[in-house]
Amino acid sequence: MEQQSWTERTLSNGSSKNCIRLVLLLPALCIAVGACSTRHDRTLSDNKSVVLRSETELWNRGNLAAADELYTPNFVCHFVIEPEWRGVQGIKDAVAQHRRSFPDWNEQVDDIIAEGDKVVIRFTSTGTQKGEFAGISPTGKKVTIREVAIFRLVDGKIAEQWGMPDVHGLLEQLKTGTSQR
């Protein structure tokens, strides 16, 4: 007795309609899965863009109005040593104060990683102290520190941040005047 192939068995059982449906649905399924993947990649890319824009507009340029577009009204920033910043006004106040201390503050992103609703950046920050900072009178010293920040985004806006700057290194440089590169 000769053995039939799966296709021959399927067609001989009257299942040709099901087979045709399967053949027609398979490309649609592949397209749908691909679209989900593309949409996921686009969301990750969009989230990275929001964080990079925050770095450029707020921290590097001091454009406080950008916070209205980039942060949720209930934004919270958790810092290692400072009190939390809350809301859009909280981030604006923090940036304004920091830029009074370091008017030329610049944050250069060295690495950026996105997964799910989170974006992580590792960056190098530089600035010259021209105003009081942490109780230290203006020194005119140029400083360089390394930082890491984790952002959580909701609907294309930053809702939460965990900031980990090298505050110890920053304070040491202000006291000694030697930059850490």
> Rounded to an integer, what's the Rg over CA atoms?
26 Å
Predict the CATH topology.
Nuclear Transport Factor 2, Chain: A
Question: Helix proportion of residues, in percent?
Answer: 40-55%
Count of helical regions: 5
Topology, number of strands: 6
Quick one: overall form?
Answer: elongated
**Structural category:** alpha+beta
> Which CATH architecture is right?
Roll
**What is the domain total for the residues?**
1
Description of the molecule:
The protein is α+β, with helices and mostly antiparallel strands and 181 residues long. The protein has one domain (6-176): Nuclear Transport Factor 2, Chain: A (Roll), CATH 3.10.450.50. The chain is built from five helices and six strands, in the order H-H-H-E-E-H-E-E-E-E-H. The chain has helices spanning 6-12, 16-60, 66-70, 87-101, 167-176; strands at residues 71-79, 85-86, 106-115, 118-128, 142-154, 157-165.
Entry summary:
The protein is 45% helix and 30% strand. The protein contains five helices and six strands.
Name the descriptors.
181 residues, 30% strand, 6-stranded mixed β-sheet, alpha+beta, Nuclear Transport Factor 2, Chain: A
Strand-helix topology:
Layout: H1 6-12, H2 16-60, H3 66-70, E1 71-79, E2 85-86, H4 87-101, E3 106-115, E4 118-128, E5 142-154, E6 157-165, H5 167-176
Parallel strand pairs: 1-6
Antiparallel strand pairs: 1-2, 3-4, 4-5, 5-6
